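Q: Joint fold for the lines below.
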Amino acid sequence: MALAATIVLPLLLGLLAAALPSNRARPTLLPVAAACHLAATLSAVFSWPFKSGGEGGLALSWLGLDAPGKLVLLLVSVLFFCCSLYCVGYLRYRLERSNRVFVACLLGFLSAASLAAWSRHLGLTWVAIEATTLSTAPLIYFNRSKRSIEATWKYLLVCSVGIALALLGTFFLAYSAIAAGLPVSLMNDDLARAAAGLSRPWLRAAFVLILVGYGTKMGLAPMHTWKPDAYGEAPGVVGAIFAGGVTSCAFLAFLRVDRVCACAGEGAWSSRLLLVMGLFSMAIAALFMIAQRDFKRMLAYGSVEHAGILAAALGFGGGALGLGSGALYGGMLQLVAGGLAKGLLFLSAGNIHRAYASKSTDEARGAMRRLPLSGALFVAGFLATTGSPPFGPFIGLFSILSSAVAGGRGLAAALFGLLLLAVFAGMGRTALAVAQGRPPTEAAASSYRDGFLTTAPALILLALVLLLGLWIPVPLESLMRDAASFMQAAP
Amino acid sequence: MSGLIDPLLIVVLALNLFALGNSRIQSTIRIVAAQGIVLGVTTLLMHESLSLPVILSAAAAIAIKGLLIPAIMIRSLREAGIKREVEPLIGFLPSIVIGAVASGAVLLASRALGAKGAAALVIPASISTVLVGFLILISRYKAISQVLGYLVLENGIYIFGMLLVEAVPLVVEMGMLLDLFVGVFVISIITNHINQAFSSTDTRRLVALKE
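A: Joint structure:
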């Protein structure tokens, strides 16, 4: 039941959207699909509001939710629900342009992302992640400008090649069982159980390829080059889907492989690699954020930083088994709270972009006066995403840091803290330049005003991010603990 | 039948070098298509007995890699109105030499690592095809040539997948081929738009977005 509502229904509605002739009615399919998806997700993850009948009752061994899969499915579902409401408002301003491909591709993305969450087979996960790449590419191209073609081309080529490497890595992982004379399987649990016997050189080669492959999709530096271009040229709501949804799906795929490595006793090796990648991504993000005048590109580097934090959390959490659960828990919280905060930032940034028709801080100034609500949401999103209290990411980042210090990785922890500070400063400069000051006269005269549908979704996201910082609901808390312990043990 | 596998893989490696040395894009598309068909046939021969799933997956590979994708690409080549890859970053002859040396090195390295059984030639053939794909991808400037590099890369990965028939169920394999097909379809559309907007498919013109 939940399986059908999260994977098949969005796909069917996507086909319906492609067939529907009315440009005005088409976007309303989005909230319909999103509401069904959200209800099915809540029932599958928390058995609420309906008792779920097992896991769909289907005898498909390669579809089922593990703890991180539940978490990502929940995140994608909530984020997509907010974005779908926003889309209805946004596409009303863009009626001059056909939204057929846009709506159909958004629904296709929802289906592919859910498949990635449900999949228990690494090959199937790969198929789903590649499907998210293909379904999101036309979204970047929505504005049909030269610049957006360039961004789409770079995204498609870089990510397709990156994802191809992840497939090669997945094959290497399967072959590591053959090379050791074990029965071959790509099921997550089989691999984790057999991990200790896998051939080490093949396992390590597989890990590196998969880190590069899914790292490209997550936007880890130095494979992040497509990100600023894609985020800069795509509509704001697409940025929210990318930063909160696509990144999380790629992270989920990667996380399942990292667990095999941890179970094989290679955790110390893999976590060192992850830590280096994570801190390097944060450093690159901080570097390129300084004096960044294009606020959407600035947000893209913020997403690179987010990917870096997630990788670093896995790095701090790996190594000695049992010690790092605090960092892993923090990473899971950062995944959810950070993803929602990204949604908040991109949605409000989209409104500001629309009002000023510019994404440079040369023209876009004084957003607090021009659009009081969106401007305030943008500043709140900036504070939340950089880890200021009392928002959710603060708790996540704090938990990662304190666990890293307790685990005896003082130097890396100090660097982590320093980079967070640098990102805060770099992002703050651009974000405050957008928010403060006096709007230029031509922007004050433009007709765009904040509407209910374009601000309410951001308000919902703000409330959720704030809630995660003040009080984490008990079922969610235990889900995140499960996800953290999932990483550390074979079933 | 397995006696035929090694010669077929040698054919695949030879096609790699042809693809590297060809300046006419249309013939390169044909070469990559031929490689796809050879790979489909090799899949058939890898199995001891022919079952329905095996025949289906080989047929799908031949249809998609050998017929559908080349047809799409030749169409977008016609629309772009170009014939040749001019002035690649690495010349045609040097790239053949690099490709041949790399393939030889991979072969020797896998001997040294002691690859055995069915894998003796499959693994080096796979890795060298992946490397050749990368070489095409980074040394050519026309958008369509870069897509060809991506296809060669995918072919290399497909060769490796032949070793893992038990681990990859038919549904997943079909999903992979479908993704490849849709991917090339979407990329071709974007290539056409690049051609319309920039009056060229030269990717060196895509430089508006930078810091």
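Q: Anything notable?
A: The interface with chain B takes residues 62, 121, 123-124, 126-127, 130-131, 133-134, 137-138, 141, 146-147, 149-154, 156-157, 160-161, 164, 167-168, 171-172, 174-175, 177-178, 183-186, 228-229, 232-233, 288, 297 of chain A (CB under 8 Å). DSSP finds 20 helices and no strands in chain A.
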